[in-house]
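hey so i finally got around to running the thing on that chain from the lab meeting. sorry it took forever, my laptop kept dying and i had to restart like 3 times. anyway pasting the input first so we r on the same page abt which one it is
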Amino acid sequence: MKNRMPAVVAATGVLVLTALTGCSTSAAPILQDVPEKNPAQWVMPMDQYVPADTVASDYAENLLVQPCMEAAGYAWSVPYRDITADSGPSWNAVQRKLFNVDLAKQVGYHAARSSDSSLAAWVDFSQQEVSPAMDAVLTDCIYAAREELPRLQSDADIAVSLGNAAYDAAMQEGSVKDAASKWAACMQPAGVSDLPASPSEMPSSSLRAQFDLDDPKSVASPEEISLATRDADCQQSSGWLDSAYEEEWDKQLSMLEDNADTLERVKATIEANRVSVYEVISSNAPTS
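ok and heres what got predicted. didnt touch it at all, straight out
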């Protein structure tokens, strides 16, 4: 995943934005609830409408799948998950990848480790080998689980889709492009063979390969940390971070106002689903 600030993992799929904009009767009260700006955490106006409980949702679904698989003669021992643990300092509350000087000095372009002590067991569980016969049964059990605990429908991802559109529009603003040019000049001495035109496209393809960034078990080398720190410094000194944040904030705020009624309706759906997810976990999860 490239270091795009709005890299939110959509929980339900892609949403077509046709006919979503327009005047909203509830815009004024909603805009009173806009969070304070926080560039360090890349807080955005529509964060409150993003389905952020994907870990809990996947956990609940697997807990419902387990008895179905066992009834078919397959072991499906779902390990304990600490759903209260955060994802670590490299991710914000809605799972946007953060990148700054402090993180670069610690982990380069990698993600800092989560404090979730249950994560390793979950990764092993999710990466287990599944035979074709077992996979067929698993598919049926997943369908059955989703009858009991339906997944959010595609319209629940409106904030993700609108947020990504706001980011793309922000990247085309003159202030952001001008700052990106200054960043590129700042980065030129680093000698990156495929240095992109904007820091939004970092790390580049060659750097991803060089630093094994697609291997979840790899760690940052001194060379990676040095380059990433330069990158983060250049993003700051060029003014790109400030410009990108302000432009994206303004774009999101406008979209929030235009889509307030739809977002509030979806927010209620997300919260109802969250209650159902946590009820399943409370009733079925192992204690540790």
